[in-house]
Amino acid sequence: MLPSTDTCEFISTEGLAGLLKDGKIRLIDVRTEEAWSECHISGSTNLCIYETAFPEKMAEFEADKAAPIVIYGEGHPFKADLAAYASLQSQGYTEVSILTGGLKAWKEEGREIEGSGPADDAPRSRHYFLDTEKSHLRWVGRNLMNQHNGEIQLAGGEIKFDQNGILAEGEVIADMTKMVCHDIKESKMAQALIGHLASVDFFDVENHPEARFNLDSGEPIKGALDGAPNLLVKGQLTARGTSMPLETKAMLAPIEGGFVLQTVFQFDRTQVGALYGSGRIFERLGMHLVNDLVSIDLTAFFIISKP
Prior knowledge:
Number of strands: 16
Helix content: 10-25%
Domain Rhodanese: 21-115
InterPro entries: Lipid/polyisoprenoid-bd_YceI, Rhodanese-like_dom, Rhodanese-like_dom_sf, TTHA0802/YceI-like_sf
GO molecular function: transferase activity
Largest sheet: 9 strands, antiparallel
Pfam families: Rhodanese, YceI
Organism: Oceanipulchritudo coccoides
């Protein structure tokens, strides 16, 4: 639980500048090491509040619980500084203040900062390939009384960026012959379920061994925060040889040597001809009713060199 700002002590940018000039303050940047390296207030020390070892590192940095301390984060609307304030108070530090407006306010006033500058997240290439070993496609199917979950092995894929660094097209291919169930521990029962899903009642895997998601466009979502979808993806989902339009919100983020794309969506299996147990198709199903919607959780790693 974050503390109310009414219960916190704050210090202005002007007040902090004066304390730094006099050398009478311990200034702590509570953001990540990466953020601190890019840009920080001159004279600050980085102790990341997101780390579980924050209390121990704080004790090593400053053992005097009465020492004057100023902490800061990025600024509005983020609240890492409030989390750090609560933690320091719980540890017994009595002279803690938060920089009003955080780093954002300090920079806007043109005060002294240091750092390497923001990382360049633009694609170094326009073409990346799916890393099938690291990527996962997880599924959940439900009936009236229960649900089952598992995974489908990914067989390949790629994404391409346009000249402006915007995701322009791509595809992810699933090997339907390598579908497994995770929640049923008894092997024969699990095999029976997978056999039924692979049959003509559902995905007719013998005749259609692959399913595909073809990405036609990726529109950036304005104002998206870290940890929230930042891309509106539109394309086509193909299973059983039948395609249907699909639109989903996704997170696309740079990683070392490539990108990771993560999305969770549902699709109506009856739209591709998987009709078994559908209340839209069959009457008076009772306990044989199976939900039309299938949930998909895709985490796809794309790397610059083809595996």
